[in-house]
Amino acid sequence: MSELAPTRRTVLTGAAALAAVGFVPGAAAAQGPGPKTRPTATITVLGTTDLHGNVMNWDYFANRDYRDSAGNDIGLAKVSTLVSAIREERGAANVMLIDAGDTIQGTPLAYYYARIDPITDGASVHPMAEAMNIIGYDAAALGNHEFNYGIDTLRVFQEQLDFPLLGANAVDAATKLPAFPPYFIKSFTMPDGKVVKVGVLGLTNPGIAIWDRANVEGRMEFPGLVEQAKIFVPRLRKAGADIVVVSAHSGADTSSSYGDALPYPENAATLVAQQVPGIDAILVGHAHKEIVERWVTNEATGEQVLLTEPLKWGMRLSVIDLDLTLVEKKWRLRGVSAQVLNSNTVDEDPAVVDALQKQHDIVVDYVNSVIGTSAQAMSASRAVVEDVAAIDFVNYVQADAVKQALAGTADAALPVVSIAAPFNRDAAIPEGEVTVRDVAGLYVFDNTLVAVKVTGAQIRDYLEFSAVYYKQVSGTGPFAMKDVTNAVTASAPNGTPDYNYDIVAGLDAPLTYDVDIAQPAGSRIANLRYAGAPIVDTQEFAMAINNYRQSGGGNFPHVKTAPVLYNRQVEIRQLIIDWVTANGVVDATVFASKDWQLVSGGQPVTIS
């Protein structure tokens, strides 16, 4: 059984917790106060998003209390303490709690109850459902990752919730009607006994149609947020909603990672605020950013719409204050404001911890179970600047699985190559005993394996696109890593994520290349060879790739439209775990080789 790390703070609740967080009651009504002689009241909407399976303040891959360089804490147990404090301060009858999606994927805890002891078997309640029910959520929007484990798992999760799971733009493919409740209305009683109704419209991400195509194609469709909001905001108002809040699993900074693959943008929260009249506030999700308050002017009405986003994983809690005043015997909205509370100033709620402790312990034991041994230590720490065995291992397992799957088919003779990215530079396989946790650290996403047919010219294009990860740098160094990469850092939050730097390797013969960082992006791949010979543009390969990339994630060239040779919906992380379990020994001499290098003007670059 596991033992949670000692808490770092005393438990804070009520006014003490809010004071520690810096909570300002009724902060800054933004749309102008009404006359002071009129009665006033406040309805508070609390919001979380992108919880990604985090209940405890725990890092399953590091096997310790969660910590990061910014001092953040995570998890619903922390959020619960903040929520309880707000309810105590404001009165529970005046508070509403909602979420903006991506709930059931992201940690070994979430994975375990989707795949190892799946909730579809009927024996277990999903830990996120259990925790959210204890805390008392009123509604939650669907996130794109809700669909990762298939619609059947999602439906069971939905049944286990004590509150509605909303998705106005998740529609049945046949009827085009919402497959989930589109909205929820909660009534609040004002001091004079009158009722004010707050409607919550749930919107999810159109990218689901791409990212989880195998799970949803032919069953559900995902039209644009703006398009569906234009339909359902008026319906909410007609149904009696005095105030409309949108819970949108869609970022505020308009963009799409899938390019023009869909007519609807991935991050459309700002567009919803601009183009759809009748919205008072939007709880934003998906982008994993912290937005305290952002104001967007609606183009039709000129009204200001509030956007707020509470980062991710339960690190923050958004507090939206809806300030009302009584005008001519009717309660009217006179101002909206928001602030975010930080989970790192309070302790975990013992009620949530106690309820989830058994499931947490089971998963800690699972991820720490020994499944094999490694003949050498392998680390991903330098995977973005040199060919390392840890990434070679991922590519080897992926390519080997594809080769076995193609055996006996018309494509069996195709040479197999594979792509992998350094998802987690902290990942390391130790020499000696290897646990599930060690292997899972190499592959922290729940992607599945796909194989597509590509040409030599397409591989070159793919590698050129990947090499955008690097800055244009002359000279051979030595350089620090940060001086040669465009990686995301605290000072460069809009850089290229490590997961968008793909490395290509061969299986039965080496695929080798140089990345010349002295050259401009688009002209960096040199000496591209397979089995020692220059790759011919028309030469064909089977490429092992993850479903996120193949379906358009990252907008890499060619692979989305390439012929699919293999797609059995097998999770890559589980493939690696199964490979270690079956083989017993991980020996880097079997699969590791130096297949690519950074050069400048053709000369190898030294990275300190």
From TrEMBL:
Domain 5'-Nucleotidase C-terminal span(s) in chain numbering: 370-560
Gene3D superfamilies reported in the protein's UniProt record: 3.60.21.10, 5'-Nucleotidase, C-terminal domain
Catalysed transformations (reactions): a ribonucleoside 3'-phosphate + H2O = a ribonucleoside + phosphate; a nucleoside 2',3'-cyclic phosphate + H2O = a nucleoside 3'-phosphate + H(+)
The keyword Signal belongs to this UniProt entry's keyword annotation: yes
PROSITE patterns per the UniProt record, alphabetical: 5_NUCLEOTIDASE_2, TAT
Chief subcellular location: other
Residues annotated as signal peptide: 1-30
CDD domains in the record: MPP_CpdB_N
Co-factor(s): a divalent metal cation
Location(s) in or outside the cell: Cell envelope
Every Calcineurin-like phosphoesterase domain range: 44-289
Keywords: Hydrolase, Metal-binding, Multifunctional enzyme, Nucleotide-binding, Signal
Family: Belongs to the 5'-nucleotidase family.
The organism's place on the tree of life at top rank: Bacteria
Protein name from the UniProt record: 5'-nucleotidase C-terminal domain-containing protein
Native source species: Nocardioides jiangsuensis
